[in-house]
Design a protein that fits this description.
Elements (H helix, E strand, L loop, with lengths): L1 E6 L3 E7 L5 E8 L11 H6 L2 H6 L5 E6 L5 H14 L4 E6 H9 L5 E6 L3 E6 L4 E2 L6 H4 L5 H13 L5 H11 L3 H10 L3 H6 L2 H5 L5 H18 L10 E5 L1 H5 L1 H10 L4 E5 L3 H12 L1
Parallel strand pairs: 1-4, 4-5, 6-9, 9-10
Antiparallel strand pairs: 1-2, 2-3, 6-7, 7-8
Helix pairs in contact: 4-14, 11-13
Length: about 280
């Protein structure tokens, strides 16, 4: 059996293929971004999933694509922890951009962007990815991402920048205290996921003029920092992967139009396309 895993900072999608390259199992765990999660939690979190435990000894190969795995040390951490559960499996651990590139590939070179809890971008020619820019994470980067939009919302709430109607609704929905916010941002294992969770509030009100403007400016920042630096963006399609891209697709396309760029397709969950790519090109 072969496992294909797409792991973000919030959750991981797992697909297990049988020996005939047919889908045997689909399941989820939390996200395993080594920059945020304590490595000692990885094995227990996997073992909470009874479906994975049942097939762990039948899996001989794992293709793991994860947030935070653009650094060799982090890849080694994931490989070592996977080996503790899937003792008979060989693991290939790559960064999430490679999964996005595979999932977004439609036969033509493209700029590929991730907009989920975090954000990132690359250029994929069908074989290799080119990364022009580093991923700076949610403290200094991740423009346009769920954590960036959540950060904007929480900051504007506490600094009393929200319109009265949105301030009142946010207060009624969350009752968020500054001490709780600081604790979650500085002392929790996944602060970026905590911030990204506030997108539910924005998405439910995304037609509100204030949020339309706020999200538009955040997406402009994403294009300026993570798309326009690729000279190929002038001519190639720009394809997006991730839930934030999916929910704010109209805004993305409006911003792209302002920059005279061409957005191709937007995929909410890349795992299905990622599996198809492996069946067609890798396995």
């Amino acid at each position: 059996m072969v496992a294909i895993v797409d792991s973000g900072s919030t959750k991981s999608d797992w697909v297990i293929l049988d020996d005939f390259k047919k889908v045997f199992l689909k399941t989820e765990t939390i996200g395993f971004n080594p920059n945020f999660i304590n490595r000692e939690l990885i094995v227990p979190e996997i073992e909470k999933n009874s479906s994975l435990v049942l097939v762990k000894n039948s899996i001989t190969k794992i293709f793991f694509y994860g947030s935070g795995c653009g650094v060799k040390k982090n890849c080694e951490t994931i490989e070592e922890e996977l080996k503790k559960v899937f003792t008979k499996a060989e693991s290939v651990v790559r960064e999430d951009l490679m999964a996005a590139a595979y999932a977004a590939y439609n036969g033509k070179p493209a700029v590929v962007c991730i907009l989920g809890t975090g954000s990132n971008s690359c250029y994929f020619d069908g074989k290799d990815i080119k990364i022009e820019l580093p991923s700076l994470g949610f403290l200094m980067g991740d423009e346009g991402s769920g954590s960036a939009i959540g950060k904007q919302l929480v900051r504007r709430y506490f600094m009393k920048k929200l319109p009265d109607d949105l301030h009142t609704e946010f207060e009624q929905n969350y009752g968020l205290k500054i001490e709780d916010a600081l604790k979650n941002m500085y002392h929790s294992p996944r602060p970026n996921a905590w911030l990204a969770d506030f997108n539910r509030f924005v998405i439910e009100r995304k037609d509100h003029p204030y949020f339309k403007s706020m999200v538009y400016e955040e997406m402009k920042s994403f294009f300026e920092y993570q798309v326009i630096p690729y000279k190929e963006s002038k001519d190639a399609e720009i394809n997006f992967i991730g839930s934030i891209a999916y929910y704010y697709e109209d805004t993305l396309r409006s911003v792209a139009e302002e920059f005279h760029l061409n957005v191709g397709h937007v995929v909410r969950k890349p795992i299905e396309s990622l599996v198809d790519y492996h069946i067609k090109y890798i396995l």
